[in-house]
Amino acid sequence: MRRQTRAAPALVGKPRHQETRERILDVAERLFARHGLDAVSVRDITHAAKANLGAINYHFGTKRKLMVAVFDRRMTPLTRERMSALDALEKAAGDGALPVAGVLEAMFRPAVLHAMDKQRGGAVFGRLMARSMMEPNPHLESFMRGQLEPVVRRFDAALMRAMPSLSLEDVFWRMHLLIGALHNSLLMLDKKLPDGRCLRMEPEAYVKRFMAFAAAAFKAPLPKA
């Protein structure tokens, strides 16, 4: 009878070099969110990740490429989910009108689910996004444009199809205000109100509340001058 042998540890789970790469990304994301992109050095990251400079060079090459990789890991799946949800909505509508609430949900539901899932960035990446908006970094601009411009074009067109009475400027400002509301409310989820209540809730409950607000806000008529 042949004796069974255990698999070598290196063959179980992720390869060791992949684990190192993920650990560096996790640490860099956390430090960038806490201190800012410019304030964190490669030495800070390698020390906190218990890695060496060679690992940074091997996996990313430079700090700039590491920064892009931190954002790419979170934003590319988010973009893909948003586009997929909008594709499905447009396919179901055919040549008919698009529902405003459906378009908004395709945009905001993936963002909420990512922001409330630690495995997909959670609050840490939310804080990093907020910081990157307040402290723009020129090395990320090209990447961010590549991620955001296709999303903006698709959703602007879908929203104007859903509400043809709106101008492109109307769509821009309504989405701008909703995105600001979303980011602010997500960053407040772990905070306590003065009366002691915590704003934490289950993802689906949060989506339901935010979508009711978003649809009503988007449809609201502008006051007459």
Descriptive overview:
- The protein has 225 residues and is mainly alpha-helical.
- It has a domain at 73-219: Tetracycline Repressor, domain 2 (Orthogonal Bundle).
- The protein is 70% helix and 0% strand.
- Extended strand count: 0
Q: In terms of structural class, how would the helical and strand content be classed?
A: mainly alpha
Number of helices: 9
CATH class call of one domain: Mainly Alpha
Cα gyration radius (Å) = 21 Å
Indicate the CATH topology of one domain.
Tetracycline Repressor, domain 2
Sheet of most strands:
none
Q: Which CATH architecture of one domain? A: Orthogonal Bundle
- Helical proportion, percent range: 55-70%
Residue share in β-strands:
under 5%
Strand-helix topology:
Blueprint: H1 16-35, H2 42-49, H3 53-59, H4 63-93, H5 100-115, H6 122-134, H7 138-162, H8 168-187, H9 203-219
Helix pairs in contact: 1-2, 1-4, 1-6, 4-5, 4-7, 5-7, 5-9, 8-9
